[in-house]
Amino acid sequence: CGLLRHRPGAGGAYWVDSQQKRYVPVKGDHVIGIVTAKAGDVFRLDVGGSEPASLSYLAFEGATKRNRPNVQVGDLIYGQFVVANKDMEPEMVCIDSSGKSSGMGIIGQDGFLFKVSLGLIRKLLAPKCEIIQELSQLYPFELVIGMNGRIWVKAKTVQQTLIIVNILEACEFMTAEQRKQALAKLSGN
Amino acid sequence: MAVELDNGQCRLRPFSCELGLLSRPDGSATFLQGDTSVLAGLYGPAEAKVSKELPDRAALEVLLRPKVGLPGVLERSREQLLRQTCEAVILGVLHPRTAISLVLQVLSDAGSLLSCCLNAACMALLDAGLPLNALFCGVTCALQPDGTILLDPTARQEQEARAILTFAIASNERKVLMTTTKGSCSVEEMQQCLAAAQRAATTIFQFYRDSVRRRYSKS
């Protein structure tokens, strides 16, 4: 259930804007997964769906049988689904169709991972998102957004990271004016 | 938001609901009918235990916790009724080998508890965004000893009644999903109660729509 939206124009699309928390894997979605187990040649990743996803060790850029990627249990991986339907276990890769990693792979050390609703993720991923533009004027930071509701943030200090995390979590409920006020107070401090 | 309804000769108590109030479950709702209130939390579609998973559809589990004491036989029978109603509307074939858990906590009981549980369950399903083929609502009717029908009875009215009938009514053409009766009544009386419940269902579905609209207008 949600709001029915319409985009007029060539082709014109109707879609339902919903606010859900549970993620269901969809082919082509970029998500953040947490490595839970290494089973032979395959890593098991928790992506927040009903089943763990599998990721082959060869699905990284420049990986061969001799040159294995250095992935430990508990690492964060940013990848996309190649197989995701209701009947099969979801499978992920960290390379795109041409073999390049294009930003996917193991997410570095430090930083903070947290979960938000899927509606906020879609808002943040919309082109020219105001929230991210306003936040980037506050502090410089690195941001990885997964379609499964997970966001990873890393700023220079722990305090800055936590401030950004709190603002992003609160964005779900704040209106644009409240957000601008909160950011103005923070940049004034 | 409280709504006072007058449905011809049958009145429903004022009811209100709140969606999305719990942070852990995927969907949550609390539903109040007069003084009866139930809190529902829904988790799913999540990983199912191998012993419980079904190969072609989602496995639904309902847990009803009374306000005081441990769950007993009455709670188990209500859980089965709720489970059968929810299974009739949830499109489980879209999520095979998963588990959907619905946990209901009775916050206060002042009559019509089963229909309050049904309404809270439907609102939690809406909040979680699970695929459904229809909405459903619960309506309780009490048959007085003199034959008059009372909708949404209080605990006192339930005790004095000759029979208590609870219906779960679906939103597509007001079809009946589940019926349970306590006491004895004739077939004609049951048909009359059913007709009154179907009329009341229309008002309850309109209330669902208004609650969801309010929730989405906040974002």
Automatic annotation (TrEMBL), chain A:
Reply yes or no: does the keyword Phosphoprotein apply.
no
Mind listing the GO molecular function terms for this protein?
A: RNA binding
Record flagged with keyword RNA-binding:
yes
Subcellular location(s) per record: Cytoplasm; Nucleus, Nucleolus
**Highest taxon of the lineage:** Eukaryota
Record-linked Pfam families? KH_6, RRP40_S1
A single GO CC term for this protein reads:
nucleolus
UniProt keyword terms in alphabetical order = Cytoplasm, Exosome, Nucleus, RNA-binding, rRNA processing
**An example Gene Ontology biological process:** nuclear polyadenylation-dependent rRNA catabolic process
Q: Where is the K Homology domain?
A: 111-159
Entry's InterPro entries? Answer: Exosome_RNA_bind1/RRP40/RRP4, KH_dom_type_1, KH_dom_type_1_sf, NA-bd_OB-fold, RRP40_KH-I, Rrp40_S1
Q: Which PANTHER family match?
A: EXOSOME COMPLEX COMPONENT RRP40, PNAS-3 RELATED
> Which family does the record assign?
Belongs to the RRP40 family.
Tell me what this protein is called. Answer: Exosome complex component RRP40
This protein's species is Sylvia atricapilla
Q: What is the lineage of its organism?
A: Eukaryota, Metazoa, Chordata, Craniata, Vertebrata
